Automatic annotation (TrEMBL):
It comes from Nitratifractor salsuginis (strain DSM 16511 / JCM 12458 / E9I37-1). This is Lysozyme inhibitor LprI N-terminal domain-containing protein. InterPro entries: Integrin_alpha_N (IPR028994).
Length: 295
């Protein structure tokens, strides 16, 4: 009886002060999930592995702030998807995060040629391939090798221009600088995602571009948008966007007959938030000034 009472007191103190059954488990920003994760041997081991991988990832990049931003976004997604601690959901998210961090660490560093360093200094040389909210965008997409070679601009100059444009989301215009617009006073966080593919979308003979941009309005939701960036005699301007399905992965992107054909992997009705499994093809075209889903 006394032992049971003592154990209850210990558990109560742990819940108040964030202590845990496994000394190697640091609760970090887990919030209400810390008790579930740190009191479970398997989950706490996975969480400790994530902490170790984060340390290595930070030591191997010059932009540790991006790693921290990415981790905070992932934690928000974890809390949103797993609520108050569904064990299966937590385990799948933790395992997925470990794989993601290992891929980031193993990714070879890009070496910028000396002749291009002045141009690259305006933006992060690796950032065109990923976005801080890595949960949604770290998955590779299949793009034909010649799809981006149609542009007369060098790739680094093209990416620089796409990341320093004005994009309209939910009726408001956001001017990105180096791929970002972050305004905590407005609760607006807009980030350039990636260049998906290119082709002639309006029949004028100029190369147009299909890109993704991500919007966060201050909550836990991170919403992807698909834009067409038109080119008219060297001037770039964007269409109004189409929203993409939440938690989906882009598998491939092509332009056919002035239409965008996206192959997506979307969450099925019984899929956990981390692991969509439903393969779908969606087709978009520009109607007026707005990119619209037509199939």
């Amino acid at each position: 009886m006394r032992f049971s009472l003592f154990l209850s007191v210990v558990i109560f103190i742990q819940s108040l002060y964030g202590f845990n059954f496994h000394s190697g488990c640091k609760s970090g920003n887990l919030g209400l999930l810390s008790q579930t994760i740190c009191s479970d041997r398997e989950l706490s081991t996975l969480w400790s592995s994530i902490q170790d991988l984060l340390f290595v990832a930070k030591s191997r990049t010059s932009d540790s702030e991006k790693i921290i931003w990415n981790q905070e976004a992932w934690l928000r997604r974890l809390r949103e998807d797993c609520g108050y601690g569904g064990r299966f959901c937590l385990r799948e998210h933790l395992k997925s995060r470990i794989v993601e961090l290992r891929q980031r660490i193993d990714r070879p560093k890009r070496i910028t040629p000396a002749t291009q360093r002045m141009h690259h200094s305006a933006y992060s040389p690796t950032s065109e391939n990923h976005f801080p909210y890595q949960v949604k965008t770290h998955y590779p997409i299949r793009v034909k090798k010649d799809a981006l070679s149609q542009s007369p601009l060098p790739r680094f100059e093209l990416i620089r221009r796409l990341k320093n444009m004005e994009y309209t989301i939910e009726g408001k215009r956001y001017r990105l600088y180096n791929g970002r617009y972050h305004n905590s006073a407005e609760y607006a966080y807009v980030d350039f995602g990636r260049l998906l593919t290119s082709g002639d979308m309006d029949g004028d003979g100029d190369t147009d571009y299909v890109v993704t941009v991500y919007f966060n309005g201050g909550g836990s939701g991170i919403f992807p948008y698909l834009f067409v960036v038109f080119q008219d005699k060297g001037t770039f301007f964007s269409s109004l966007p189409a929203s993409l399905p939440d938690r989906s992965k882009i598998d491939s992107a092509t332009i056919r007959d002035s239409k965008i054909v996206l192959s997506l992997i979307e969450p099925g009705p019984n899929d956990p938030g981390c692991c969509p499994s439903l393969h779908r093809t969606r087709i978009y075209r520009v109607i007026g000034q707005e990119l619209s889903l037509i199939y």
